[in-house]
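Appendix B. One record, verbatim.
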Amino acid sequence: MPLTFHPLTPERLTDLDTVFQARGCSVAKSCYCMYYRVPGKPSELKTGETRTSWNRAAIAKLAEGETPPGLLAYKDGRPVGWVSLGPRKDFVRLANSPTMRSIDDKPVWSVICFVVPSEYRKQGVAHELLAAAVDFAKAQGATLLEAYPVDRDAPEAPNASWFGSCSMFVKAGFSEVARHKPTRPIVRLRLARRPRP
């Protein structure tokens, strides 16, 4: 399907809400793709504040920064998907992850998760989001892009579709560089440096 892509900005937060609150996106609905960006649970919630509202406020603040925390996909002006990515150092929980821990000290960017509502799945949205993420990372000056997909061909592979499938990344030119867990490879793509505009 023909899609367009835009980085998350404050003006597009309601579009992110549309994706996360759609059918089939229950995990994203509460997480707002903040799980790997914060070291633990919010230490103090204000009166009336929930973890979901805290996470939404946190990603809204990131959307105001210099490096947007991800990209939204649109079909005919309607938001149909999301990919979370950025410099690996911004995802603090990766450091202690037994599955996604660092394999070296190279400055990599990480693709963390995809969110596609049920009605738009199996139509190539995640594949197109990955291609857009590669272009976005290049434009931001990244030289290595890393991801932590699920190897669906491995026995007992988890149903954690938000990480993306290993085959999708291989088709996009990524290569496996490590595997700390049998079903979860670490894949990388070397990016040609492109000057930032």
